[in-house]
Amino acid sequence: MLRWVRRAAWGAVAVLGFLVLATSAGWLVTDGPLADREVASGPASLPIGGPFSLTDHRGRTVTEADFRGRPMAVFFGFTHCPDVCPTTLGDMTALIEALGPDAERIHWLFVSVDWERDTPEALAGYLEAFDRRIIGLSGTEAQIAEAARSFRVYYRRVPLEGGGYTMDHSASVFLLDAAGRFAGTIDNKEGQEVALEKLRMLARGAS
Q1: Angle value at C-alpha 156, between 151 and 50, nearest 5 degrees
Q2: How large is the average pLDDT for residues 84-89?
Q3: How does pLDDT run across 1-13, given as a tens digit for each residue?
Q4: pLDDT tens digits for range 159-196
Q5: d(CA 121, CA 129)
């Protein structure tokens, strides 16, 4: 009996550990069948952030090295997203405005997970609705997969009835310091004041 209780306890710990890691790393999705799941901020010790090579919305090839020296706020999504992506980018625009001069100390990145539709031209047109400091990044299927692996991002193409498709994807905004080290996340349900405080600490830590 005691052995069974111990096994059950260890099983519960393992499940809890997986859920903490999954939410911290932004693995829970925002669109599609799992849209009601939330993404939580995680510990800064997680190995999030790393190499990528993508094309920005002005047609320039960039890598993670082009953004070193200033912290980064990075959000993965796609332009055909029905709600979470425009809402998050709208929130990001409001945060940039509220930060004032501190906003200039941060790179603001929107990385598309839709390699088929989100060309640099498509991203450029989409981002006209948001703050000009948000940089859109896209790439080939392989390039996006590399970037997603670096940030431990979940995404999946989901076919729709009648043709077409949508994308399930992670919801968090990932925060990296000026050296490219993971510094935390902003949850898509988080209040503006909490998000602002995280961003102020991130920006002022770079000075």
Answers
A1: 15
A2: 96
A3: 434 333 443 444 3
A4: 999 889 999 999 899 999 999 999 999 987 889 999 99
A5: 14
Strands (DSSP E) contained in the chain are: 53-56, 61-63, 72-77, 107-112, 134-138, 155-159, 165-169, 173-176, 182-186
Which residues 6+ apart lie within 8 Å of 142 measured at CB?
none
- Asked whether the whole model's pTM tops 0.85, one would answer no
Count of residues in the chain: 207
At 86, list the tokens. 């425009």
> Burial of 61 by CB count in 10 Å (0-12 exposed, 13-18 middle, 19+ buried)?
exposed
Q: How many CB atoms lie within 10 A of CB 48?
A: 24
Find out whether 40 and 24 touch, Cβ atoms under 8 Å: yes
DSSP-assigned letters across all residues of 109-143: EEEES-TTT--HHHHHHHHTTS-TTEEEEE--HHH
CA 159 to chain centre: 22
3-state SS class at 159: strand
Residues 19-33: pLDDT tens digits?
Answer: 333 434 443 344 433
Helix (H, G, I), strand (E, B) or coil at 29: strand
